[in-house]
User: Fold this.
Amino acid sequence: MQIIPCLVRRAALLVLIALPACAAPPTRGIAATPAAVGPEPIVIHDNRGGNVLQMIQRRTELEASGRPVRISGRCNSACTMLITLPNACLARDASVGFHAPRLPGTDIIPPIVDQLMALHYRNGILERWNAEWRHSLKIQKISAQEYVRLDPQTRLCPR
Assistant:
């Protein structure tokens, strides 16, 4: 019968939602913790990319989190769509790599996927994407500084 598993899932969801309300109240006289100062950043480090549709979903989740997003190390392929998040910054020593989207294990460039990626680029990055990178089967790497030169709206992370 399907009703029982459904009820169990709903009950589990209600418990998860209620847990923060069950937390102990703050103790008086304790100094503010770093969490009180501001939320910890979500760190995206050495991300190779992956499925474009899944990365678009991850982007939506990161934006809705309200937390800062710090992109560091290598950010390649689908990861590059995260750099333009309004709550993201790019580490000064990061490298960013672009290439044509491909069906896994092939050199076949699927239709529309490059256009979905382009929706998350702007300025000189978008121009280079449309002119060259979306056609390249080899990864085209640039530094964080070059990225900001091409898209001055991008924020570099504080040191």
